[in-house]
Design brief:
The protein is 47% helix and 8% strand. By secondary structure, the protein is an alpha/beta fold.
């Protein structure tokens, strides 16, 4: 963060994202100037799940098909007025080369890379309803906010200039409001990636440690993540908290069991509350049989593309040793994993979670 944002850039981000009145006013300005000339929203595609489950690479691959408009780094920091900011920044914004993102996970991003920025809308308009000191809770935004969101998505599409582009968003916090999204957009496509529970939990733990160290060195990076509503890990971590309490009372985020319990609670919630047509995707299966699996995903998302050209972009991460979990928590995770397989697009499994578990 320190190398990427100078003083002026940090100040601009603080004003655009950290000041709610300014953020809300930016959307109002965009709405006022656009008038009634906004395109309809047809079959938007939403990617949501627990972090470290393959959501970002799935977003990048779908975006690479050229059939979607997503919020990108070029839209920062005024993500609530994408059309106006595009015009204002045209004279000074320069395309930057792609580089590995701060997660250190081989995913490369640049100016035109899509990212999870739409959460700024929900934080600005109704953050107090679901962002609590001890976590994030499910919520149903009021009708007027839902209508404002519908308009916001139309404005994002209008800023693209392509009449046939569809909206594509990755936002893990949408696990708190998936039924609401289907109410706003009944033809929305919901994609829910998930990963081997033990491996996903360990990946979350590794990222938590990585970002805690970063946040200790750079306060701005913590503020940046908080402004974007990214509470997945780091010093600003706030877990999802559903009607079924997350059993983390005796754990801390520096323990593997904490993250595995969070995995269990999140995917139990999704299995129970996700709309019946939501598409669950096992990331390991996607990596091991990418062409066939991506062809299924493309069909579910109603897009036409050459699956062979995009399937090779999915690469399975090296497995971590998984002997640090409590046996009873592993058993509970396996039960949820088995149900996910039954609901998933691939419907088969060939191993236990974290197949290299010892002990």
């Amino acid at each position: 963060m320190s190398a990427d944002y100078g003083f002026a850039s940090r100040l601009l981000h603080r004003v655009a994202l950290g000041c709610r009145p300014v953020a809300r006013a930016s959307l109002e300005a965009e709405t006022l100037i656009s008038g009634s000339s906004v395109p309809p929203v047809t079959a938007p595609v939403y990617i949501a799940g627990l972090a470290r489950g393959g959501t970002t690479i799935l977003l990048q691959v779908l975006h690479a098909t050229g059939q979607f408009r997503s919020l990108c780094y070029a839209d920062m920091p005024f993500v609530l007025m994408p059309g106006l900011w595009k015009k204002v920044s045209r004279g000074f914004q320069r395309e930057t080369p792609e580089k590995e993102r701060a997660h250190g996970d081989r995913i490369r991003v640049g100016t035109n890379s899509p990212e999870a920025f739409e959460e700024v809308f929900w934080r600005v308009h109704c953050g107090s309803e679901y962002i609590r000191p001890d976590g994030l809770v499910p919520h149903v935004p009021a009708a007027d906010i839902r209508e404002t969101y519908r308009r916001y998505v139309s404005l994002i599409l209008a800023s693209d200039g392509r009449p046939d582009a569809r909206y594509l968003a990755k936002n893990n916090n949408n696990v708190l409001r998936l039924p609401m999204l289907k109410q706003v957009f009944p033809d929305a496509v919901l994609l829910i990636p998930w990963r081997d529970p033990l491996q996903q939990a360990l990946s979350l733990l590794a990222q938590h440690e990585r970002f805690c160290a970063r946040h200790d060195q750079d306060r701005f990076s913590l503020e940046y993540m908080n402004w974007l509503g990214h509470f997945e890990f780091g010093r600003g971590h706030r877990p999802f908290r559903f009607s079924e309490p997350v059993d983390t009372a005796n754990d801390s985020p520096d323990m593997p069991d904490y993250w595995l319990k969070l995995w269990i609670a999140t995917y139990r919630h999704l299995l129970t509350t996700a709309p019946v047509d939501a598409v669950f995707i096992c990331y390991e299966r996607l990596c091991r049989d990418p062409v066939a699996q991506f062809r299924r995903i493309a069909s579910a998302a109603n897009i036409v593309c050459d699956a062979e050209s995009y399937g090779g972009l999915f690469q399975e991460a090296a497995a971590r040793p998984v002997d640090r979990f409590s046996d009873d928590v592993v058993e509970r995770a396996a039960e949820v994993r088995d149900e996910l397989f039954r609901r998933s697009i691939e419907n088969t499994t060939d191993g236990k979670p974290g197949g290299n578990r010892t002990g």
